[in-house]
Amino acid sequence: MDRTERERRILQRVMAVGAIVPVSAGLYGILFAAGLTGDRLGGTGESHYRYLSGLLLGIGLLFWSAIPRIEDRTGRVQILTLIVVTGGLGRLVGVLLTGVPALSMIGALLMELLVTPVICLWQMRVARLYREPAATAAEAVPTASVRPTGVI
Fold this sequence. Notes:
The chain has helices spanning 3-18, 20-32, 43-65, 74-98, 103-140. It is elongated. The N and C termini lie far apart (56 Å). The chain contains five helices and no strands. By secondary structure, it is mainly alpha-helical.
């Protein structure tokens, strides 16, 4: 196994483990609403919490769906990263407006604003490494040269 393939497989494992966070938090939020945080919500608040938890579950599942052909999924990973970072920026605004939340929310903030962008950049690197050999091989293929014909 060459270095590029080894790096691809490590990235796949890291993404698989990383996506456990949104999948498990999303499922938990759908089932128990704000039970994870210990907050009490009314029916409307619980409905909104469960909706957002469903989005979180979907994000995790979409990250998992990118794993089998991760070198070809740059667009998907970038869009998901944009969504996650946007949510993280919203969470950061909340920190600035209301103060530091529970430790679990700080962990989520680090995942959203640090870990996910790093995984995205890593995925882009792996995709580029997979494209480079193809470009090098295409350059190595001899092409028929056309010579002008004329009378000497």
